[in-house]
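U., I forgot to send this yesterday:
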Amino acid sequence: MKKRNILIAIFIGTLALRLFLAFSIPNLTHDSYFHLRQVEQIKETGLPLYNDDLSYGGRELLFLPGFHYLAAFLSFVIPLGILAKILPNLLLSFLPIIIYLISKQISKTPTAPLFSAFIAGLLPILYSTNSFSPFSLFLPLVFLAIYAFMNIKKNLYIYLASFFLLSVTSSSTFLLIIGFGIYLLLSLMERKKIFLSEIEIILSSIFFFIWVQFLFFKDNFLENGISFIWQNIPAQIIQDYFPKVSIGEAILLVSVIPFITGVYVVYRSLFELKGSKLFLLISLTISTTILTWFRIIQFRLSLAFFGLILAILFASFLEDAKKFFSQTKASHLKKYASIALIILLGLSMGYPAVLAAINQETPSNGE
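Result:
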């Protein structure tokens, strides 16, 4: 019961901080207004605006409308101007709970998943508090699907519902498919037992995802060929759309402590802990790295995904650290060590998170 209260406190604290920062900044980010326009169009006509008459000579818009339909439905209850700030922050505030549930699957230490949830709630890369986009729905759904897949026999319907919503929300669901493929490959290499149910659900997911994408993007694929993967962006400006970020800046956005501990856990999982349940998480990290390298998914999304994986891996690191300290003369100091770790994480992540929110690029009232 105490752990549940702490988890609820993390959720409420995360949501309160996010909403405070969101309403402290008057406007949304630049890209948010495209999505707001789509929500307004759905609310008025029931269909998204795929042909933009306001663009010079007209413009065909291609996107998956799952997030926009959700926002349009909720806008009948909450005014859209307020909903645009509340909905994304509410969705992302559920991430600590989902990360906690996943961390419990890989760690037997009772308090370790709570630290993972705490990290997920303060991850600096997620503090674009004024961004109204499908990104805020995609991340909770993809990690809910990962949680359900880890115990697919028990959570089959949760997986099916989350994967369906993912497939109509973002094409970045492709990283989950690639991750599953790498997971099967690593499992075969390490002679880890692969359950038939896992193979069946992976194959079904692949075919369903391809079918949904074909329904929405078949004309674009037939017209542009393989370049539709890069959204037909001209080579001259693709560098601006997929900007390069320095390693130091990337580590700061996912926080230094989870990054260092994540590297340690990945090493132990691949070279020492054969057949570990962490293979799936490591496979997803590899798939994200590959897709980012080939500029198939945007860097910001890949960094957020990577940061949340690191938050989960932190629970495994904490379990190893607890075993180590229990064998030393400093075992009686573990209570103070936990308090010191909370303070250290709060300081090293809280300030960058607030700074990331303050530095969001939003248009002025005049613009």
